[in-house]
Amino acid sequence: xxxxxxxxxxxxxxxxxxxxxxxxxxxxxxxxxxxxxxxxxxxxxxxxxxxxxxxxxxxxxxxxxxxxxxxxxxxxxxxxxxxxxxxxxxxxxxxxxxxxxxxxxxxxxxxxxxxxxxxxxxxxxxxxxxxxxxxxxxxxxxxxxxxxxxxxxxxxxxxxxxxxxxxxxxxxxxxxxxxxxxxxxxxxxxxxxxxxxxxxxxxxxxxxxxxxxxxxxxxxxxxxxxx
Length: 227
Description:
Layout: H1 4-20, H2 23-28, H3 32-62, H4 65-92, H5 96-225
Helix pairs in contact: 1-3, 3-4, 3-5
């Protein structure tokens, strides 16, 4: 069958029916206290069987459509069998029906309370399942967050390493710039020195030229104009 609970109730019903089916015949053959004891026993077992059948009917309503026909057929047969045993019991003990109506009503009330408790337990079970599902979702979310955190940490480590490499490159570039600045300073000093030497050489050359012109003028004067 589709429901494990339905199968359990089926086994309980079979056990109760096996006890009930022999009682009407035994009642017809005994008297006094023994007969009363059998009537009470039948009444109790019949109530328990009705409760089991009610539980099976509840399971039937919750069963998938493909299983309901077979389950419904079984349930009708079981109710028919219980009805037949009840009629046999009334035949064997004429006062059975009226004597047991009050007790049966009490059992129905008890069963209603049990059914309400069962519904409450099912509701709590549904809430528990919902809470478990929420917890599983939260756990999965935490796991995803941890994976993202690990990935982010790895990315951060890679970025730090890359920045460290770039810092080393910048340090080397700065050192090269410092060296280049020092070289330029030395070059400017050399150029200034060369410029001073050039100016000095120019002045010396001008003085020499002037002296040569003076000497040449003196020679010409002495040779051509002075007698």
